[in-house]
Fold each of these.
Amino acid sequence: MADPKGFLTTGREVAETRPAAERVKDWNEVYVRGSLLPIISKQAGRCMDCGIPFCHNGCPLGNLIPEWNDYAYREDWTAASERLHATNNFPEFTGRLCPAPCESACVLGINQPAVTIKNVEVSIIDKAWGNGDVTPQPPERLSGRTVAVIGSGPAGLAAAQQLTRAGHTVAVFERADRIGGLLRYGIPEFKMEKSHINRRIEQMRAEGTKFRTEVEIGRDIDAAGLRRRYDAVVIAAGATVSRDLPVPGRELNGVHFAMEYLPLANKVQEGDLTVSPISAEGKHVVVIGGGDTGADCVGTAHRQGALSVTQLEIMPRPGEERNTNQPWPTFPMLYKVTSAHEEGGERVYSVSTTHFEGDEDGNVQALHLVEVEFKDGRPAPKPGTERRIPAQLVTLAMGFTGTDRSNGLVQQFGVELDERGNVARDADFATNVDGVFVAGDAGRGQSLIVWAIAEGRSAARGVDRYLTGVSALPAPIRPTDRALAV
Ligand SMILES: Cc1cc2nc3c(=O)[nH]c(=O)nc-3n(C[C@H](O)[C@H](O)[C@H](O)COP(=O)(O)OP(=O)(O)OC[C@H]3O[C@@H](n4cnc5c(N)ncnc54)[C@H](O)[C@@H]3O)c2cc1C
Ligand code: SF4
C-alpha cells in the first residue's frame, strides 16, 4: 500500500485547467501543461489498496489501479507504465477522455472524494512517453496467419495491436483519410491533441501493423475479396449513423448533424482547411442533445466565435448527487459541467424542438421548442410553453443508430444484426459468419472509448483462438458485460 494514511491526510486535487477566457482563443488541450506532476504522487497515495478493489470492476479494462497507484506514489514510473499497459493499450486516450467509471466505484468515494484515478493514469503514460519507456513490441515470430481489421477507431486499433503482437500479419482498413476513428474526427483537439494518436500509430507501424486509409470495405473492396485475402476479419466500423430529427424545416441550410460539423473543425486543426465550411462565427448556435457529442459542439462553437450557444436536452436536468436507484459503486447519471460548459453558453433541459424557421433563401434563422414532461416514460408537450430562439447554426447531437449499412459492408458479409441494429456476436466476439468478428460500437452500439479498447482486446483473443486453437491474449470482457459501468 502506497501511503497508509494518504486518504486521511491528503485531499483530492485534480488537473488544473487554463482560464476559460484564455483557452477559447486556441485549440490546445484545456489543461495547464505540467500541472499534474507536482501533485500526482500524493494523489496516488490516497489509494487505500482495498481488499476488494471495486475500481477494477468499474473499469471495463480491469485496469490494475491500486498496483499502479502504488508505483506512482513511489515515483517508479517505468513499473507503473508496465502495469498500466498490462491491461490498456492506449492509456493516453482514456486518461484524457474516459468519464472514469472507476472513480464512481472507488471505495474511498463512499464517504470522501474518490481517488483521482484518471489523472494518475494520464500522468503515468505521459511520463512513460517522456522517459522513452513506450517502445515498439514486435512479435518474436510470425504465425503466417493474416487478419483484416475494418475501422481504425479505438476498437480496431486495440484489436490490431494485440493481434500483431501475437504474431499475426494485420492490416487496418480505414475509409477516412487518417487513422483514429472518432478519436481523430469526432473528438475535438481541445479534449485530446491528435499528436497522441500519431505517436501510437508510429509505434504500431514499427511493430508491423499495416494501415490502409481511404479504403472503404463494401465499396472499394468487397467482403468476398477481403475474405479471400485474409484468414480472419474484425469489423470495428463503429456506430456512425447519426440519429435524425424529422421536424418541419430540417432541410434548411445551417441544420447539420454534429458529425458533419465536428470533423470539419478537426480538419482545420490538421491543416487541411483554413476555415471550416460550417462555422459558428458570428452566429447564434443551438446544439440539440445534452451528451458528450453536444458538449464538443459547444466547445467548438465557442472557439469559432459564436454569438451565443444554447444546448437543448429533452430529458430533465440530472441531479448532482447519486439517486437511491444508482447507489455506489454504479456509474450514476449526474449533472456534469464539462470544460466546454465552463466556457459559457446556456443549457436548457426538458424541451423538445417542434420546428425550424428559415428565411427566403432557405437558411435557418430560428428554432421553436416546447417544454415537455415525462408521462409513462414518454415526453409530453406542456401547452403554453412554446418559444422561439434565434439560430443560424443548429447541430444535431442526439446519438447514433448503428453501424453504416449504406456501403454494403453488413449485407456483403451476411452478418446478422441484433434487435438494436448492431452486429450480433457470441462470447468470443464472433459473428454468425465463420472467421468474421466484431468489436466496439459496431457490436455494442454507441458507447465509450474504454469499452471500445476492452472489446478490441477481447475480440483479438477470439480471433487468436480461431486462428491457432489457443490464445494467451487477455480478454477483459464478454459481449454482454455491462460491469458496474455504462
Ligand atoms: C463527438 C464525440 C465525442 C465523444 N467523446 C467521447 C469521450 O470524451 N469519451 C469517451 O469515452 N467516448 C467518447 N465518444 C464515444 C467514442 O468516441 C466511441 O465510443 C469510440 O470511438 C468507438 O470506437 P470504435 O473503434 O468502435 O468506432 P469509431 O471510433 O467510430 O471508429 C470506426 C471507424 O471505422 C471506419 N469505418 C466505418 N465503416 C468502414 C468501412 N466500411 N471501411 C473502412 N472503414 C470504415 C470509420 O471511418 C471510423 O474511422 C465520443 C463520440 C463522439 C461522436
Ligand atoms: S480507463 Fe477509464 S475506467 Fe479505466 S482506470 Fe482509466 S479512467 Fe478509470
Note: Residues 241 and 400 are 5 Å apart (CA to CA).
Amino acid sequence: MSVALGKMVGMEDLETQLGELEQLARRVASEVLGEGASRPLDERALVAVLAATGRVQRLVEAVQIELVGEIDQRNTSPVGEGRLVDRLGCHNVSELVQRATRVSPATAGRLARAATAIRQPVSVTTGEVLPPMLPALREAVRDGVVGLDGALAIAGPLMATGSRAARDALLTADGILAAEARGEGPDAAPPACADLLRVQAQVWAMALDPDGAEPRERRAMHARAFTLGTATEYGVPVRGMLLHEVAAQFQRIADAVMNPRVDSDRVSGVRFVDDSADAPHVPADPRTRAQKQHDVLATALGVAASSELLPTIGGAAPTLVVTVREEDLLGGRGYAHLDGCSEPVAVTAATHAGCAGVVQRVALDARGRIRSLGTEERVFNRHQRRAIAARDGGCLIPGCGVPAAWCEIHHVVEHANGGPTHTDNGVLLCWFHHRFIDHGGWKIRMNLGVPELRAPNWIDPYGRWRPATISPTRLLHGVLRT
Ligand SMILES: [Zn+2]
C-alpha cells in the first residue's frame, strides 16, 4: 500500500507539488504579516501555530538536504560532459545552492554536511543505491522529526569519528539518537531539541572514538586564530577561534573583574558612606554582556601592559603613543591619533590613555611644536596606588564592583589642567568608568582629600555630593555620624 502510494506521489511532478505548497505558504504569510492574523490568537494557539511552522520547516529542510546531496553527487561523478556547476556557471555547489535558495554560504555548507550524512550514494560502477551513513537519522529527517539543525547536531559529532568508530557501534548510536529525537528514547523524554541532541551525540562520539581527542587537538591547534580586521569609523572588527582553555581563561578573568553580585538586592563594591534611607538607589549596570566582555579585555590588556612583565621593545616597555592637539586636550573635544591606527579617536581616549603608564601622550600646539609629553611624573607610583586603593577599595562608582587590583587611577583634575599626581587628586575607577566618565553623568570631586560623587540626575534628582568608599573603617564612620 505505502509502496504503491510512494510510487504514485513520486510520479507526480515535484515542481507542481512544491508550487502548490508555495501558494499555501504564501497565503499563510500574507494573513500573518499582512493582516495580523496572529494578533487575536491566545497563547496556546500562538504556540501551536509556531510549532506547526517548525514541522513544515523541518520537512522543507529535509527536501533541501536531499536535493543538495543529489546535486553534490552529480557534480562529483558527472554523467555526460563536465561538472554540473560548470554548466550552470557557478564555481562550486555552495554557490549554486546560495543562488538558488538565497541562503548564506554558512547555511549552504550546513546543507551539504547534512546531505553527506543521510544521502543514499549511488555506486558509480553498478548504479546500485547504497545505504546512507546514518540510516536512522535519514528516516527521522524524512519524517520531519529533525530539521537541518537537529540533523547536524547528530551527524556532526558522529561523522567526526570518521573511520575510527566501528560501523555496528555507529549504527547503534544513530538508532538511539534518532529515537531520542522522536521522543522514543529509553528514558521516555519528550522529543529532544537540537542542542540536547548535540550533547548526546558528543557523548556517543567520545565513547565510539576514545582516541578522537588527539586528531581533534591537532585540528584545534590548526584552527586557532585571532585577527584584527581593518579599522572602521566605529572600531576594529575582530575574528578568530579561541582554544577552549584560552576562552575559559578569558571567562575566569571576566568573572573576576565583573565580580557578579551574590544577590540582586545587596550591591557589592563601593557604597555611599551615608548609606541612609535617602541615599539614591543605583540601578544595575546598563552594559550588554558583549560590551562588558570588551571592557574586560581592555582591563586585562591594561593590567598586562603595566605589569612590567611584558617583553620590552628597544629596552622600554611597549608604549602606545597618542598624539593630540594641545588645545583639544585642554578643551576636552576634538580628535587624537594613535600610533599604528588609521582612524582618529576621541580626545577623551587620549585623556584616558594619558593616565596609564604605558601610553605616552604627545601634545602639539597649533604650529605642530611639541608642547607636552606624557611622562613618568603624571603616572601614580606604586605607593600612591596602594594608598588610594586602601582609601577607595575599588571602582568608585557605586554598584560597579570592580576590585582595586583591576582599577586604573583617574586624575580628578586633569593633569593637563594642572591637576597634580597626588593621592588627593587620584581616585580608583575601572576601565569602563574611567574611559566613559564624561558620558555617564557621574561627577567626581575631591573634598579635602576625600572623593565625593554626584550621581546623574536620573538616579539622584537632588544632585547631592556624597562620599563613597568600600573601606569598612570609613563606612563605619559614616554610620556613627548619622
Ligand atoms: Zn566601574
Note: The chain has 18 helices and 13 strands.
